[in-house]
Amino acid sequence: MIVPALKQYTPPVLAIVLFLMAWSFGAKQIDTSLGQVPGPAMVLEQARILWQEHVTEREKAKAFYERQPTISYTGKPTYVDQILTSLKTVFMGFVIASLVALPIGIICGLSKTVMRALNPLIQVFKPVSPLAWLPIVTMVVSAVYATNSAWMPKSFLISAITVSLCSLWATLINTALGVASVNTDYINVARVLQLSPLKKTFKVLLPATLPLIFTGLRISLGVGWMVLIASEMLAQNPGLGKFIWDEFQNGSSQSLAKIMVAVFTIGLIGFVLDRIMVELQKRVSYEGYAA
Amino acid sequence: MKDMLLELKDVARGFGEGKGRIDVLRDINLAVKEGESIAIVGFTGSGKTTLIKLMGGLLMPDSGQVLFKGRPVDAPGRERGIVFQNYSLLPWLTVLRNVMLAVDEVYPEWSKQERLEYAKRYIAMVNLQHAVDKRPAELSGGMRQRVSLARTLAMNPEMLLMDEPLSALDAITRASLQREILNIMSGSKTTVLLITNDVDEAILMADRVIPLNPGPNATLGPSFKVNIDRSADRTELNSNPEFIRLRNQVIEYLLDKRSEAGTRNTGKFLLPNLSPVLPQSGFGSTRSKAA
């Protein structure tokens, strides 16, 4: 009972302890213009402070609304607000990417001609960095999207679209490949039953491709989350990217520690998002059950 | 001949081009009367599946004609139900949903309740009422083939095409399914065409046994009429003189043809040099010109 558990948990725990020790030791050796590189203890302390600030800010807002129920409170966004903004942005970008990539992917999978037509474009655009897209997206959005409404500011839209542009390729390629390589047995069933093209797509092709599509979506979300931080920095979307940028510009003695809190936050959220996609993927997977 | 349900006239079909071309079937002539049950026996690789795909409309002949009720077959149709060798169930659907896929398509005018009951009746017919909510992966090979049979029978086809339906099963399951299929078929007047590599199975299941000569360029042999009471027990059948005589005749015929084919092809039977086509590498396989 205990021995397998020990075997399972000892190596990662040991690795983490060693990492913390190396970090703690290494950090002391380097002095930057913002002071010493923060060690684990300082980072933890900053995480606590950021949380404390969030709690205080919420209490202030609550007190404000008790006094002024009709006026909206305009405090500065807390770290938690910034995390939520980032999540909203990546989700928006992911939805846009999926809405574009899925239909195009299906069409590419169904028609060799369309696939051949789009393939060069896909191959060329796929490796482009978000930093290259961002100025273009910024100019286009500024030209087209004039109203700067409160619930969807320009910076949010720019970040989300940049995320979509970088993340849609994985979904598109996986969907196209999946639809194109559906088991001929399933297609024969559809043919013998004389299913209409629409029914064939929704009852046979898509369910058969779903595991591959979800693999694509999972990669897309991962890419989107990575790209998001860079685009938030440049587009000044008030999320984690902007938080890092502001702390960097701010240059106080706590800045580096705060940025490291953000690094861990980004890593943990990325990990959780990936696990969610893996769970969803398991739900739709019939593989391993080969018929 | 107007009263023929299915007719094949001088049908030929091959695959590939140039030196890699294999002429699988040639000069296939067959006429199936309504209500008749026919078994085609042949060695592995003699083109049996190609033959059934031609009848089903999943493949088109290179020359000659496939006629169903006097009309050329140009696509698969519900009036010709196909039971595939590898079951071809959709792995993400339960047994009931797999059968419902066919029922929904064939009887769209019925109410949902009627369709469900109808599907369940066919599932009960193949003794799977306890497994309606199971997925194909949870079933044994014999059970999967029963689902496939139920799905095909639920389409109420005028003709049942079975492509080695029992080949992948163990001897005991195979014998009990043969019995079951016979029982089901004795209650209906459906025309049956069974393809098998088992001479005993052919004699047991059909009114007429037709050998398929070994390929390439396989043609149909003479038809052997079966005059055996099928209600007899299978163990008794093994000592039935008529059964033994017929079995020996068919086997002798097939062996003769194979040794003929063997001498004819000595030294010049060339295997095509094929390599697998990977999904992304596009069209065409690399066929060597060395042949």
Describe the structure.
- The complex is a heterodimer of chains A (291) and B (291).
- Chain A has 291 residues and is mainly alpha-helical.
- Chain A has ten helices and two strands.
- Chain A has a two-stranded antiparallel sheet with strand order 1-2.
- In chain A, helix 5 packs across helix 8 and helix 9 runs antiparallel to helix 10.
- The model of chain A has no long low-confidence stretch (mean pLDDT 89).
- Chain B folds into two domains: 153 residues, Rossmann fold, CATH 3.40.50; 70 residues, no CATH class.
- The termini of chain B are far apart.
- The radius of gyration of chain B is 20 Å and the shape is globular.
- In chain B, strand 7, helix 5 and strand 8 form a beta-alpha-beta unit.
- Chain B has 291 residues and is of the alpha/beta class.
- The C terminus of chain B is likely disordered.
- In chain B, helix 2 runs parallel beside helix 4 and helix 3 crosses helix 4.
- The longest helix of chain B has 25 residues.
- In chain B, the strands form two sheets. Chain B has a six-stranded mixed β-sheet, with helices on both faces. A four-stranded antiparallel β-sheet of chain B has the order 2-1-4-5, with helices on one face.
- Chains A and B meet through helix 7 and helix 8 of A and strand 6 and helix 2 of B.
Task: Summarize it.
Chain A is mainly alpha-helical and 291 residues long. Chain A contains ten helices and two strands.
Q: Major β-sheet of chain B, in short?
A: 6 strands, mixed
Which sequence of SSEs, written as H and E, runs from N to C of chain B? EEEHEEEHHHEHEHEEHH
**Which fold name is given in CATH as the topology of the largest domain in chain B?**
Rossmann fold
Oligomer: heterodimer
**Tell me, what's the shape of chain A?**
globular
Give the C-alpha Rg of chain A. Answer: 24 Å
Beta-strand segment tally of chain B: 10
Our estimate of the beta-strand percent of chain B is 15-25%
